[in-house]
Amino acid sequence: MFKKIFTIILSLLFINGLMPVWGQGFLKAKGKLIVNEKGEKVILRGMGLGGWMLQEGYMFRLSNIGQQYKIKAKIQEAVGEEKTKQFYESWLANHTTKADIDSMAAWGFNSMRLPIHYNLYTLPVDEEKTPGQNTWIEKGFAMTDSLLAWCKANKIYLILDLHAAPNGQGNDLPIADRDPSKPTLWESEAAIQKTIALWRKLAERYANEPWIGGYDIINEPNYGFEDPKGDVRGTNEKKNEPLRKLMVDITKAIREVDNKHIIIIEGNGFGNNYNGVLPTWDDNMVLSFHKYGNFNTVDAIKRFLELRDQYNVPLWLGESGENSNTWFYECIKLVESNDIGWAWWQNKKMNINNPLEIRTPEGYSKLLEFWSGKGPKPTEEEAWKTLTQLLENLKIKNNVFHKDVVDAMFRQVQSAETKPFKDHQITDNTTIEAVDFDMGRQRLAYYDRDTASYHYTPGVNTRGNRGGAYRNDGVDIQREGTAVHIFSIEDGEWLQYTVNVPKAGNYNVSFEISTANDSARISLLSGKKTLINEQPLENTGGLQQWKTSAPQSVRLEKGVQQIRVYANKGGFNFRRIYFKKKD
């Protein structure tokens, strides 16, 4: 009886993350690979928890404000100091919870990257009563403990990332919540020593935690040491002497208390400029690089592959994302085929190119107008109502889940098969929303001439989904009130829909479209069979004037099948397909 009770207690402890989960053990660098304690290769498939400990303005349509400390000041201006304090307490409680980690584990993620804001763990340098002293704040450590427990329960590795270092590690102000009126990290010895001490404190606390995957010791340095004015991002830096020295000193402090965990380093110029940083100085080290908005070819990562070969060290794509599903699939396929793990940026914000979208609260536009100086100040009651709704909208239960994003990041990397976005049953009267086409790779589930953004590639001005609505595939989707539709349709583009026809028969098919020209043509295909061939679409009098095309009779066979709507001649908007069974 005692043995049975003991077993039940142990099981409950494991489920609640209160005891360590024995499994793969500590990760380590072994040659060019990251391996577990059994020596097995581990491909980290991770998500960055951006926006939780550290808000960046663009995540919440606040790009004109930028840094978190400025956002906080704006909120205080609207609702006062006490409510601002309450807002941030609730923000930290609501943004990322166990439910978020449970969900991401179910979707396929095996690691999390925690972007740390130092000010949740220690006071700013200029607020220390005694110069050189480090006052520790329990809030950040307690949050990390909770997150680690949630990760343990899901057998997920947690990577700690110092995203906002004391005084800020570069000239991109929002990513480090940096105040430009104060000396940077590189100009303040006190800030440097605080950074080193923080890492020693973290390493001491988590030294024996196998589900801590590693220490990403400084995020995206971007600073010109040799030419501070001409090379503000550090992309042309040749020596990087202060960066190397700081990372060596951090490593030494960590190794005084922890010899088990991987140390992850990043180059200058947003993590990618390793001039003067190498060779490595620790035998359990990983090189991180960040990749945004360029082509997904071997040439794009060639210099990092060369560094891996030269120094016999593993690579990790520590940050990527902010693009379309096509780009996501291509990038992940590229790095995984080269034995490189990844961490995406980020899990939730006010946009569609992440797994979770934060809904915009009512009255938010009024706050934005006030904060940008374009509108009157709302009453404190109005502002607090909006902010309270934002706090509720942060919770995963109130987020919009973009299953197409997760599908692109996992299933599409492994499979060329398409998958229905929604269950389409063709009955006597059936309406299919145009935006509910199948999930899958470009040229298999759909074809669009512009499927991704290459904003860091000179001369390439593509964008992906130009409307930025509903889903993150390359298809252009526009919101109009509460409805969404396909727009910017070009010649030769097409969409596939998986449908189930319970009973074979003849159906009238029509399309709800809008167009301002007389040349638009549309076809409907099922496999190799053409059901409707280049039907002319009537000029509706404008792209905001919707009409239903003349019905065409087609024969649909019984069973599950893929049909494609093909734009022989574009220049129209497309909202719905209607099927009506003929007597």
From TrEMBL:
Start and end residues of each CBM6 domain: 445-580
CDD domains recorded: CBM6_cellulase-like
UniProt organism field: Terrimonas ginsenosidimutans
Domain of life assignment: Bacteria
Ion transport found in the keyword field: no
Family the entry assigns: Belongs to the glycosyl hydrolase 5 (cellulase A) family.
Keywords: Glycosidase, Hydrolase, Signal
Presence of the UniProt keyword Glycoprotein in the record: no
Name recorded for this polypeptide: Cellulase family glycosylhydrolase
PANTHER family: GLUCAN ENDO-1,6-BETA-GLUCOSIDASE B, PUTATIVE-RELATED
